Amino acid sequence: MQPRSKMLLAAAGVLTVLLIVYIIATRPGPSDNELIAAQTETLRTAAERHSVSQVMSVVSAEYHDSMLSNTDQLNFFLRRVVGQAGPVTVQFDNPIVTIEGDTAISRGHLRAVSNQGGGVLTDQDVTLHWKRETGHKLLVFPTPVWRLTNAEYQAPGMGGE
Prior knowledge:
By secondary structure, the protein is α+β, with helices and mostly antiparallel strands. The chain folds into 2 domains: 1-30; 32-152, Nuclear Transport Factor 2, Chain: A, CATH 3.10.450.50. The chain has helices at residues 3-26, 32-49, 52-56, 71-84; strands at 88-100, 103-114, 120-137, 141-152.
């Protein structure tokens, strides 16, 4: 094969790869409801797996709630609680999502049950506040992601459970 043919073949290969990456990156993504549902499922499975890092991947840098004023406090709290918790089954049932521009609220019922003895750890309605932020697809292409900015819940040991 001649050097010029090799160069043309290599250029065609590079262009093909770039075209495939572009098509994948610009393909329409899931709806906002689907994105929020996927993030909610990530939170649920992370709680069952005791994966604080997975929970924190869904949390916005702007997170705060009535008990925690920032993500550092949330991370510390989760590591402390997760370190003491045994295996659990977590359900977040019937979430209703309301989207208004770049913010959303999902309301559902959270139930967590210990797999050791079946004790109910929490059984309450929870409201999750979301914000659309910019993430990256394929490490390069900007893509919308929904991240948790606030949660309304009854703290353990505060009654109502």
